[in-house]
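REQUEST FORM: STRUCTURE PREDICTION
Request ID: SP-0412
Submitted by: Lab K.M.
Chain count: 1
Length (residues): 196
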Amino acid sequence: MVTDSTMHVPLFPLNSIVLPKGRIPLQLFEARYIDMLTRCLKEDRGFVVVLLREGLETDSMAAFYDIGTYVRIIDFQQLDNGMLGITVEGQAKVAVVKCWKAPDGLNVGDIDLLLDEDDGPVPSQFSELPVVLKALLKHPVVNDLDMSVDFADARDVGWRLTELLPIDKQEKQRLLELQDPLERLGRLHALLEALE
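STATUS: Completed
RESULT:
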């Protein structure tokens, strides 16, 4: 978990998001990220995944959002393409209060933990959302991540749908930033109706 001693953390800008208890596979090939991985494993700490606002994942001047998710590395392996593959799991939502570039080009920041969201049941008016989520989790790529999901918990259902639904990345960021699970479910419900 994040502690006061890990307030300076590496930032990993991506074109996708992850939320607490979610998992995402990453491929590392840039020296700055392989060094970051080595340090994280050696010091038993994680890093923060932030969504790109503009620019590319490989762009050293990319702009990113200041609300993201602190993640821990749960698996890593050498891939057939020569890259290093890792799987990370979200631990907590955080706010990046200050960020800068390290000499090797790695983004680093000071973070504050955001308050935990309230847990609670999925209201009956959103009863189709867990059904949609179960269908999405059957996709082989998602299934391989072996995530445990509580389909009765509004937070879990909202977090996983935010990650998995094919919606605009700015909308995903807005959903990530919400602190009310029921408000998130309401937005997701409206987005699904619009998709249909």
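NOTES: The beta strands are 8-14, 23-28, 47-54, 63-64, 67-78, 84-101, 107-113.
Reviewed by: T.R.
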